[in-house]
């Protein structure tokens, strides 16, 4: 798939994001509705999209390929953790912002943006690989991520059961359906498909609504954040694409991995930081900048896939 095709898809996605921005700006959709829509996506639509993606004919995707992507995904997350600490030194990040920059480096928006973008750009066959990365995301964010956020916070307890979010459970169910080639009744498929089909629209509208009230001017003047964005969301995924090209001839597999490494900063680290009383301004600005630029950065990266 050429970079031009990806750019066209990203323009459509960006248009939906801007639709959310203007609908909220003109108070057609309220802040309360935005919060409810976020909960709906996280707890119903996104898990349904994960499961419904397994209803397609995936017999051409071997278990060997899935295992290979899982191994590459583990290496990617390990690399991002190391990169996060390295960038805080290279960019001379103030001590108060270091945790934020590490979180922004490690955790891309694999669920809220990754699922609908992969579905639109690469099609249903990419979803098995996307689910692998979402599974690893949940494991890493509720281990390394929560450890980093809780650092220095007293009187806070975290249960290991927190990892079992609806999205994580959906990943497990989807793997079971794929691995054992389970046939789901047509009526049940239709029900899940109806819920999953709403994921793309709702998730992108919510992202657009989150931009309202933000000072985009000051965000785009933050030189450190701009340099971070260029390294993390352009240089790193392009280097990965060039590295994988000789070893992974399967385009969908290769493109899925690169896409997962190209996605903008995730919302979950910000919500965790807010929950534990940590500084959230830096992460919020990172989410805004990387999301607004994602149509351009992802299109650029895919020229090298």
TrEMBL record:
Subcellular location: Cell membrane
InterPro entries, per database record: Mem_transp_PIN-like, Na+/solute_symporter_sf
Gene3D superfamilies associated with the record: 1.20.1530.20
Transmembrane segments: 6-24, 67-88, 100-122, 128-148, 160-179, 191-213, 225-245, 251-270, 282-304
Superkingdom of the organism of origin: Bacteria
Predominant location: membrane
Presence of keyword Membrane: yes
Keyword Transmembrane: yes
UniProt entry keywords in alphabetical sequence: Cell membrane, Membrane, Transmembrane, Transmembrane helix, Transport
Membrane protein topology class: Multi-pass membrane protein
A UniProt-annotated Pfam family: Mem_trans
Family stated for the protein in its record: Belongs to the auxin efflux carrier (TC 2.A.69) family.
Protein name listed in UniProt: AEC family transporter
């Amino acid at each position: 798939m050429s970079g031009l095709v990806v750019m066209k898809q990203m323009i459509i996605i960006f248009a939906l994001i801007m639709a959310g921005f203007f609908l909220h700006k003109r108070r057609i959709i309220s802040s309360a509705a935005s919060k409810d829509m976020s909960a709906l996506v996280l707890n119903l639509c996104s898990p349904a999209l994960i499961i419904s993606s397994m209803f397609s004919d995936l017999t051409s995707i071997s278990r060997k390929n899935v295992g290979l992507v899982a191994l590459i995904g583990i290496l990617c997350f390990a690399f991002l953790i190391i990169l996060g600490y390295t960038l805080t030194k290279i960019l001379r990040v103030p001590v108060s912002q270091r945790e934020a920059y590490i979180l922004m480096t490690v955790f891309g928006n694999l669920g809220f943006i990754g699922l609908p973008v992969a579905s639109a750009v690469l099609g249903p066959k990419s979803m098995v690989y996307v689910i692998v990365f979402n599974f690893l995301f949940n494991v890493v964010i509720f281990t390394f991520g929560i450890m980093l956020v809780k650092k220095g916070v007293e009187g806070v307890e975290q249960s290991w059961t927190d990892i079992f979010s609806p999205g994580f459970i959906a990943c497990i169910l989807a793997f079971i359906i794929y691995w054992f080639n389970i046939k789901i009744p047509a009526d049940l498929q239709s029900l899940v498909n109806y819920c999953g089909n709403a994921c793309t629209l709702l998730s992108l509208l919510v992202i657009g609504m989150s931009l309202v009230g933000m000072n985009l001017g000051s965000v785009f003047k933050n030189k450190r954040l701009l340099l971070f964005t260029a390294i993390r969301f352009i240089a790193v995924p392009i280097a990965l694409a060039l590295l994988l090209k000789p070893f992974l001839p399967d385009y969908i597999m290769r493109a899925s991995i690169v896409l997962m490494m190209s996605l903008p900063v995730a919302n979950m680290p910000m919500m965790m930081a807010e929950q534990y009383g940590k500084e959230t301004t830096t992460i919020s600005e990172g989410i805004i900048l990387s999301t607004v630029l994602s149509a351009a950065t992802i299109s650029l990266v895919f020229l090298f896939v």
